[in-house]
Design goal:
This protein is α+β, with helices and mostly antiparallel strands. Helix content is 23%, strand content 17%. The chain has a domain at 66-123 and 168-266: Uridine Diphospho-n-acetylenolpyruvylglucosamine Reductase, domain 3, CATH 3.30.465. β2 (33-36), α2 and β3 form a beta-alpha-beta unit.
Amino acid sequence: MAIIQDMMPAFELFQPTSVKDALALLNRYGKDTWVMAGGMDSLDWFKDRAKKPKVVVDLSQIKELKGIRQQGDGVEIGAMTTLTQVATNSLIQSRYGLLAQAARKVATPQIRNQGTIGGNVSQDTRCWYYRAGMPCYRAGGNTCYADTPTAMNREHCIFEADRCVAVTPSDTAPALIALDAKFVIRNPYSQHLGGSSLLLRKGERPRSVGFSSRERGLCDDRRRRGDQAGAGCRWRCVPPAAQAQGRRGQPARGTGERGDRRAGRPDRDLGSKAPQS
């Protein structure tokens, strides 16, 4: 089990100033390397001593990974662009309001000022058992401790679960999927384009995310009263095509709606109006 300590384990820190240098470091140190964006997820792992990398590559000094740029009829967002910048950018607000709304829902202003969109979509699951160091499926074991009638699994997947029932904690990922965003993926050997429902291979990192057309979309926030913002994904993301046909959007791929797994049913419908804090 992970035990919280007063100090993080020692590691060697690198702060490259270019993507080329960052990839060279990843290639040089291999499996001993940890890539850090805003540090919101990384520092949790380090402080709990659940992850003990020998080398940490901090991407915060790479200017080419930052910023929001119009590209033809679409837009490109650098992976190191902060969530605050995404939420407040006039271009994102006017053309992709769904993403701006999702970014505003992430945690607190302090975290949005430091956290990045690349880190938000790449962060690891917040499953209590996995984070505590249990030898579960995700950690290389053969058991999902959350997939039992009496487990702590209110924030976990209740539909189409297979072995591991943990879900992404990202608020922006469902919005990006609904907008059919494309990711530019870099590894030490090549660069390629990936869809919004992507699985990064070992050594790969998102470089930027882009949209090719003007799509607004809507989000319906259905958190229960008192739930911590960002504690679990509960977005119903409605792409423009579904709006035009008057249909209600379904939960985005890769996320699950919170529900009562013990009763085998999802939470009751709370209506379209979001609860007031």
